[in-house]
Predict the 3D structure of the following.
Amino acid sequence: MTAYRFSVSIMPRDGILDPAGKAVEAALPQLHADNVHEVRVGRRVELTVEADSVEGARATVDALAADFLANPLIERWSIEEVAR
Amino acid sequence: MKVGVVVFPGSNCDRDALHAAQLAGADAELLWHETPDLRGSDAVILPGGFAHGDYLRAGAIARFSPIMAAVREHIARGGLVLGICNGFQVLTEAKLLPGVLRRNATLRFEHRWVRLSVTNRDTPFTWRVPEDALLRMPIAHGEGNYWLPDADLDALEAAGRVVFRYAGPEGNPNGSARDIAGVIDATGRVCGLMPHPERASEALLGSDDGMWLMRSLVESMARVGVAA
């Protein structure tokens, strides 16, 4: 068994209201950042998986992301292997 | 007839729900979320609060509490389950009810009185509600903005599964699709709503309209003799 580390980045799907992104964007003018738009706020989960292969480890993360870490109705996600 | 009120770590309306169930004439008991069975409950309430801190998403972790296996068995036997506020969020995360409760469109935690129209009075949770009544109840939530794709909303409405809608001058407090405040599952035995009937259980609290729901629930258990 080898330990693989992944990051899962979870974002609101396009077109889904993102109040956190809107709230951040609303503060930008006070930082004189009027040229910054389309702020979206998501979250990132990092985890280590013990598995025989990177493919096996990734399959585990895929399943976890779809069933638990993200809500597929309103969120999309991407998975990336990262250094331990 | 016994109502079991589940207590997750972070539940904070469990005692209110217990009180309201007792006022409606039921025996009621708090059930810690690690309890593996429902201790003979005929109906289950998943109360409001912040189960497991609402980490990840509201209700997402509570779905894995040991008692949820017993709740699923209870549903499979035809038992009644009412999810209030966070309990509604838990039921959607557990896929026992359709849809998702997004963050409020207002960008705020909304805590105030609202009015509800009851759009399906032919359920075990609403059959005692007077016709055309607008029920006054409080809300207190940050994620109550109900959503499903339009086609699924059409199907839900066509099946009479939208049970409660925000109505009256107070309007829709959180941006919920089609003013939806509560829905029921396909079996008609599992219901969730964001407003708090248990906080509207005595006139002293500002309204006792929530008791129409509590009495419906408790008296339906007696009426149908729910499986143990």
